[in-house]
Amino acid sequence: MPSRSSLLLLPAFTMLALVFLVPLGWFFFHTLFIDTDPSDLWDQIASVLTSRAMLQAIVTTNWISLLVTATVLLMGYPIAYYLANHNGLRFTLVLFCIIVPYFTSIIVRTYSWMVLLGREGLINQALRHLGLIDTPLPLLYNQLSIVIGMTYVLLPYMVLTLFAAMKAIDRTLLLAARGMGASGPMIFWRVYLPLSRHGVISGALIVFILSIGFFITPALMGGPSDVMVAMLIERSVEITLDWAGAAVMSLFLLVVTLILYAIYYRVTDVRRLMGAT
Amino acid sequence: MSAAPLPQGGKGALELDGLTKRYGDERVVDAVSASIRPGEFFSLLGPSGSGKTTTLMMIAGFVVPDGGAIRVDDADLTRVPPQRRGLGMVFQNYAIFPHLNVFENVAFPLRARHVAEAELRVRVQAALELVRLQRFAERYARQLSGGQQQRVAIARAIVFHPSIVLMDEPLGALDKNLRYEMQVEIKDIQQRLGMTVVYVTHDQEEAMNMSDRIAIMNHGRIEQLGPPGEIYERPSNAFVARFLGEANLIEGTIERIADGQAELRTRDGVLLRAQVKRAAVGQAAALFVRPELLAFGAGAGNRVEGTVRRRSFLGSTIRTVVEVGPTTHLTIDLPNQGTGGGPGVGAHVTASWPVVHSQILLD
Known about the structure:
- The structure holds two protein chains of two kinds.
- By secondary structure, chain A is mainly alpha-helical.
- Chain A contains 14 helices and no strands.
- Chain A has helices at 10-34, 41-49, 52-84, 88-99, 106-117, 122-129, 143-167, 171-179, 184-195, 197-212, 216-221, 229-238, 243-267, 270-273.
- The longest helix of chain A is centred in the N-terminal third of the chain and has 33 residues, at 52-84.
- Chain A is globular and about 70 Å long.
- Chain A starts with 9 loop residues before the first helix and ends with a helix.
- In chain A, 30% of the residues are buried.
- By secondary structure, chain B is an alpha+beta fold.
- Chain B folds into two domains: 14-233, Rossmann fold (3-Layer(aba) Sandwich); 246-361, CATH 2.40.50.100.
- In chain B, 23% of the residues lie in helices and 35% in strands.
- Chain B has helices spanning 52-60, 102-112, 117-130, 146-158, 176-193, 204-210, 228-233, 238-243; strands at 14-23, 26-36, 41-45, 67-72, 75-76, 88-90, 164-168, 196-201, 213-218, 221-226, 248-258, 261-266, 271-275, 284-289, 295-296, 302-313, 317-325, 328-335, 348-353, 359-361.
- A six-stranded mixed sheet of chain B has the order 6-7-8-3-9-10, sandwiched between helices. A five-stranded antiparallel sheet of chain B has the order 13-12-11-14-20. In chain B, strands 15-19-16-17-18 form a five-stranded antiparallel sheet, with no helix packed on it.
- In chain B, a hairpin with a 2-residue loop joins strand 1 and strand 2 (26-36).
- Chain B starts with 13 loop residues before the first strand and ends with a strand.
């Protein structure tokens, strides 16, 4: 039902349409229907998507995204639990530590990890001074550094999603479980974890969705063989100038993301997450 | 994490000995003592903020007392964590696990006790039959009515055969008719299983209907403790008199005491007589009499005259308010006998009641 209040959205929507939807649509249209012979379109799409480079990038992207999602979940769950069960200064401090990096430029954060992890980085130097190692550990330019960097960037999304789900858990259910004789571990596995399940699924989906489109962190911190889909697209645009190939890959990534987002929307009450009731 | 077995069975005697809880400077529970007998239905009745729920939470172990002791069958439970107390508990909003079906909800206390699967099935079935929910084992809480959820909570509280079950306003969320049905049902289950029930409520009818004994609480203290009939008919102070139903409390000064009876001069100068336990001549006091014990017409005992100011139709009773003097109003309840009788507003009437039905209360 359109109302006058929807006019409030008009400036933002116009902006979004002009600088995002129109150029994107034009890019897809131009590369796929004007530059490419329409009769070759399906062959073109099939050849891009089944190329060795693309298949490899899809595998790498999925593998890294899964690793990152699992790491973020395992790190984020205890933090969210702590936040959900504390208030006052301790709550504020931990929340502050989670949120502040969120406001810092992603490039700055990635470079600071490189300062820490590099061959002559702080960690390797410290380990060498302590005499624990002779040659520097390969901490940078591999999958390990990609996972570390992306985990750091994506942690707040997981923590905040889990926190919202945990806050919604009725405390009397936990009291009831205790009153019925349940031990701490039983309360966690049989009551708390199942009741926070929605948060786990939503958090994992949002982190995975963001992971598969990641560019800066893997580009700066990854090795030569760790090519993710977004990096492949950038190479096609900047280096090989294969715009049609880039368009197909972008479209593919966009469709996958939209499908995952549709699932996310089904399992998450987005409106509840945003505080509406 | 399955160390010592949880206590089971037992007789179910519960001793509260000077239980005290402070929040800041406020004593929300102040030296509460009571000896609850095995198999007794014991209610904590009081207005909100009277400390009844805090008392129950201390018995359950969720609130740590600042003073006093809790003993069950002579074992001191004061410092025992809730999961080791072995008490059944029904929460105000049922606290049914939304992610488990009815069967698994009821099975939860048995799983906590590592009961073997075969025996667990038998016991859950038996508990569900007791609350007439056999056919609902596969359902989830959101698919059940309020009354059915209530039954799940009860089945879950009794499935491991605790000798004592605590109930925190379990019927508060139900509508009036269902509430009465559930009262009968809970009472019936309690008697069949012979368990001790400690029941928190602010509904005096509910407490009177179900309880063997009631503790009336106010400002963290027990004002009076006794069987329903006793505290209804012989309240020890004005608070108890008013809290348990309608009460006439006529203020005045005691003029004479003899043979367990006192003469009280009301502010409007009428002389009335009442039973008295402890009071002194010249003391300010109130004469208490229940509205349903008064009658119109000149009978033996106390007699007053006045004008009918209000008449309320309450269904089974007709309530008449008579102005006896500028500061004295009497409420008289008569059973509705379908004749539509009784004096109308403005009528000049005489009301009377036997002296044994009234007593002197001090504040």
